[in-house]
Amino acid sequence: MRELNYVIELMNAFSFCNQTWYFDATKLQGAVYTSSKKLNENYFYCDKTMHKGWISYTGLEEKFRFPEITPNAEKMIPAYQADYIPWLEAKETVFKSMAKNKKLFEPIAPILISYVAATDSLFKTHEALNNYITEKIFRSDNEFRHARDILIAHDNWFEQCYLLFKQLDKALVDYTNEYYSPLKTHGELQQGLQELNLTMKLLTEWENELYLENSSNNAKHDTVLRSLNESGLKKDSLYLYKTKGYGYLSSGFWLHTRYRTFYTSMRSTIYWYASSKGTPEPYIKPSQKYYNDFVRSYNSVTDDYNDYIAISDALTYWETASCCLSRSEIDTNQNVLLMAPRLPYKFEYEEKKQEEKDSIPSEVHPDALLISKAQPHHLVYLLDASSSMNESGKLTHLKENASYLVQIQRAIDQISIVTFSGKSQVLMQAIPCDQKKHILEKIDHIHAFGQTNIQSGFETVKTLLSSSKLQKGVNSVLLLTDGEFQLKEETLAIINQLKANEIGICFVYLGEPLKKKTTKALEKKYSDLGVIFYDTNRIDLKEALLKIATE
Predict the structure, then answer these.
(1) Beta strands in 64-122, from DSSP E residues, in sequence order
(2) In CA terms, which of 156, 202, 398, 447 is 20 to 30 Å from 314?
(3) 61 versus 456: which is more confidently predicted?
(4) Higher pLDDT residue, 245 or 133?
């Protein structure tokens, strides 16, 4: 468990870098917005320009092994790079642990590697921002095109980091629950933890809604939060009165003081969230500001939660409380429990000068009229991105028709895209269809390579929909492939679970023409499974997509 907690520590260390990079991206966004008519150099600054100094301390030379750290001839490093070191060290620790204990990390290794790759990509993107500001490229950047490219890249990698963060968090929780559940000892600690988890579960549900720009339940969640807070504090004496140090509130080393701190501290952080709404800058989406305000408070609560968790690890507890306790006073058989990760910030780049409207032209196209009368829908494209899709222009044809549909979809509609080849990847998750420019760019950049692994694709779709299902509307998974294959029992099980959750499944065949007899057989086969089958050799792909979106 300690080694799995190294992954959480990596996620938490990255969250601090993520926060700095978020503020730098919004500063550049504001500078471009403010200078749209006339360049104002005073607005072009970032963390690197605000921390121009150099630092040195004992042991710093050990950090020079990281290529991201660039010391000068005097063996000092730029002040802003000091914030990278905890993240780089945590990443190094995780990969060393993976190398030593491959079996332990095997179930989470693919998603962990993808997550790290995304964080590295965000780092490189942010380095481009640093160079843009420090080298004053903005002076010669016609219409700030380069700046906008940097901001679009930040938008992409912030989103990818978040989606992979969510998948990794879930994978860790599922893995530890199945194989490393807590021992049935230290009942007091675990009873207290169960109580804390009620609040953490509520906050996670709240966060998921806010990320999807749904703030309609804020008042309800706030009421439940305050109720859980009051009842949790009252149960302090019920759960923890027998634990060491009970009653000594001046010490932060005891179980009950950390339990109480979890509840009392949130009264000055997340308690104010539902009723306090500042006005964001004109170039920042209100929903983004409100989400990040929540994240700031959520992470404070998470830190207090992890302080409680830390006492379950006797080794950590000894190192923390060695000034007050002897080893004989600490039970070294205590459970080591999984910590909680801090949330990353959300960054979305929006062009306020050319804001896109979700509207239907005065002469309404028949297809747009169909969409306008349909129920709100969330289309999840499960796209075969194996190399065979490059043949005969199949991928290009698919991208053109998917883009056409997006053009006439509404703000209440959502789109997700999961590609599968050797492995699956989430390209978009529940993006409202009024963000047309962003969606169309994502579709345009889809590429096909590798082999076909449909099982991985369905597993990813299942995970995605567990947190992104449209609650009031139609949810449909569109399997788009040019191949024929046998569905394994594991895949069939996922299909049945999705259908049980009122999620429609459609198989859109994009391959070479089939014999009429074969098509009929496939239609019956998938019909028996509750899956709708479309052969695009017999029905136009655009028509198939419209039917799925409107029926």
Answers:
(1) 77-78
(2) 202
(3) 61
(4) 133
Q: What one-character-per-residue DSSP string does 158-224 give?
A: HHHHHHHHHHHHHHHHHHHHHH-PPPS--HHHHHHHHHHHHHHHHHHHHHHHHHTT--TTHHHHHHH
pLDDT surpassing 90 at residue 105 = yes
Tokens 């499974």 — which residue? 529
Other Cβ atoms less than 10 A from the Cβ of 98: the count is 19
Listed residue (449, 448, 453) closest to 396, CA to CA? 448
Contact 382, 458 (CB under 8 A): yes
CA 97 – CA 84 distance, rounded (Å): 20
- Within 461-544, strands assigned E span 474-481, 503-509, 532-535
Q: Higher model confidence: residue 167 or residue 188?
A: 167
How many whole angstroms separate alpha carbon 501 and alpha carbon 465? 10
| Helix residue ranges per DSSP H, 185-340 | 187-211, 218-234, 236-240, 255-265, 286-310, 314-321
- Is pLDDT of 512 > 90? no
Cα–Cα dist 404/549, whole Å: 12
Token reading at 86: 């905890």
Distance CA(433)–CA(443), nearest Å, equals: 13
Using one digit for the tens of pLDDT, what is the confidence trace for 81-99?
998 999 999 999 999 999 9
Strand 532-535 relative to strand 503-509, pairing: parallel
Helix (H, G, I), strand (E, B) or coil at 390: helix
